[in-house]
Amino acid sequence: FLTRDSRTVERKKYGRAKARRSFQFSKR
Prior knowledge:
Layout: no helix or strand
């Protein structure tokens, strides 16, 4: 699960316009 370093900036999601601007997407 912890393959990716959490300190790095979030990459662009698939259905998102930007990485951080996610108001419908919630992390589990």
